[in-house]
Amino acid sequence: MHDVQGVDPRSPRFGAAITSVLLAVALVLTLTEGTQVIGVLLLAALSALFAWGGFAGIRRHPYAALFRRWVRPRLAPPGELEDPAPPTFAQRVGLVITAAGVVLAVVGVPFAAAVAAALALVAALLNAVFDVCLGCLLYVWLVRTGLARPGGRTLSRP
After folding, report:
1. Which of 8, 82, 125, 130 is spaced 20 to 30 A from 34 at the CA atom?
2. pLDDT per residue as tens, the chain (158 positions)
3. What is the largest CA-CA distance in the chain?
C-alpha cells in the first residue's frame, strides 16, 4: 500500500548535502595514489546508507534522524509535506550507482569507483543546492509511463 504520510522536503536536501561532502571525499580518495582502497570503502559505506534509505524508507534514514533532532526544531514548519516515495526511490538509484562502482572497482576496473562517486556527487549536489532530485524525476517519469506504480513498485511488462 502507498504510504500517504509526507516528509519535510528539507530533510532529503539536508541528507543530500551530507552525502555530497562524503562523495566528494570518496572521489578525491579514489583518485589519489595510495588512498584508493579507503575511497572504495567510503563509497561502500555510502552504498549501505543508500540501501538503508532505499529499503527502510527515507524517514528511517540516519540523516533524517539527524534532521529531526537537530535541524527541524530550529526551522519554521514546512509549507507542505512531500510524498516519501520519490526520494526513497532516489536512494535506490544512488545504491545502484555506488554499488556498481564498488563492485567494478573490486574486480579491477580502473576509475570505476571515481566515476560512480562523481555521478552520485552530481546528483547529490543538484538536490542539495538546487532542489533538483534526479532520482525523484526518474521516479515520476516511470510512474507516468506506467513502468512503476506509485509507492515505488516496478511493473513487469508482458
Report:
1. 125
2. 344 589 999 999 999 999 999 999 999 999 999 999 999 999 999 999 999 999 999 999 999 999 999 999 999 999 999 999 999 999 999 999 999 999 999 999 999 999 999 999 999 999 999 999 999 999 999 999 999 888 754 444 44
3. 50
Q: Using a CB cutoff of 8 Å and minimum separation of 24, what contacts does 26-35 make?
A: 26/113, 26/117, 27/114, 27/117, 27/118, 27/121, 30/105, 30/111, 30/113, 30/114, 30/117, 31/111, 31/114
In the structure grid, which three cell numbers stand for residue 100, read together? Answer: 556498481
Report which of 133, 131, 130, 125 is spatially closest to residue 86, judged by C-alpha positions: 133
Q: Is 145 helix (H, G, I), strand (E, B) or coil?
A: coil
